[in-house]
Amino acid sequence: MLRKQRLVTCLSSMKSYLKVLCIIVTVFVLLQICSFQITKHSLSLPPSLLTYLKHQPDQTSDNKTAYLVEKLRESVTFLPLKDYRFSNKPLEGHTWFMSSLFDNQTKGEAQYQEFPSDSSKGRLLCLKGIDKHDGSWNYYALAWPEAIPTNAVLQKGLTFVSYNQYDYYNLWHGLSTMVPFVSWSLRNRCERPQKWVLYHWGELRFGMGHWLSEILTATYNQEPEFTRFIDEDNPVCFEKAVVMRHDQAGMSRERRMEAFDHVRCKARSYCNITTTKPRIGMTLLLRTGARAFRNESVVINVFKRECKRVDGCELNVSYSDNLTFCQQVELMKKTDVLVSPHGAQLTNLFLMDRNSSVMEFFPKGWLKLAGVGQRVFQWGANWSGMRHEGTWILLGKHVNFLIRIGDVCRSIRTL
């Protein structure tokens, strides 16, 4: 009996011992996992550098980390923004702007780059250089967040970096460059930029046309603010950056229409437009200088006569250079048929309601000289949900009408 009691006591002791041992082992394993995660989170270094770090026995852990961070800072390599190897095909492939980096390719979306991201391996975008005449003297690099260059400034928040093959003062080219950013924002919880960086062929630009600036102010509820580089040797690294360098390339018609719908809505809200529109609004939007009608009174009288043929048609004659931004927004809201010579003022067409119509006129001989540029407002109408009703040629002092304007009016609304 005594032996049985001793055996039971022994077995009980062993069970207790095993329980304690299991608890100790479990705690030890958990501590090791926790320690690994903390180390991994505190220093996002490449695996090869972490291996190197472990094989430096003469240094303490803190010294090793500081040593490697310093090495990473020194290893940041800046490349020219403008790569002359691609100067003969600036809009193809990588383009000559940041030519070593690939764009993200998502079906139906504009091509873009985002930093930090998986494709950048968590690295930030850094830019430096202050040249406004030669993009090869401005530079870019990628750097780990813990190891940006010693003399670099970290720009907080989101920054939009725009590359434009043309410029930021022409209404058409400027808007075409900005629309992909609007589309990106719509895909990312309407996130808005704190700063903008503008490049034209890799050359810095510190402003844009007033009309385009107003569009961005309306869209993002704040005036665009441009990053200014203080010194050519002091880089700026961006906490988060989105780069667009192909304009609307890759965007589906649905994505474009969505972006234009958003900008139109924001512009009307920004300008507090409450105007009641006529049953059928026809606007003759004139311009001065090149491509203006030679005899405006003849043209105006022709459109007045044709507008009277349709019940409820109201003709408005305006000059684009005499209107403020909000006046242009208000005018376009009242317009169902926009009639205008070929020119930047036609960029306003997206501010009309969807399914409105555009009648575009070219001077005699212009079609032969315009090249692909003759189609930009046909594209714009298609992208924003409008109808481009055709192109007309001005013959001397008179207009060769291929269709009756009244027929265009009837195509807008059922009377």
Automatic annotation (TrEMBL):
Record's subcellular location: Golgi apparatus membrane
Q: Does the keyword Ubl conjugation apply?
A: no
Task: Please state every residue range assigned to the domain named Glycosyltransferase 61 catalytic.
Answer: 208-359
Membrane topology term reads:
Single-pass type II membrane protein
Q: Which Pfam families match?
A: Glyco_transf_61 (PF04577)
Keywords, A to Z, come to: Glycoprotein, Glycosyltransferase, Transferase
Q: Which InterPro entries match?
A: Glyco_transf_61_cat, Glycosyltransferase_61
Question: Key word Glycoprotein present in the record?
Answer: yes
Where is this protein chiefly located? Golgi
Q: Which domain of life, per UniProt?
A: Eukaryota
- What PANTHER family has UniProt attached to this entry? GLYCOSYLTRANSFERASE, TRANSMEMBRANE PROTEIN
Protein name per UniProt? Glycosyltransferase 61 catalytic domain-containing protein
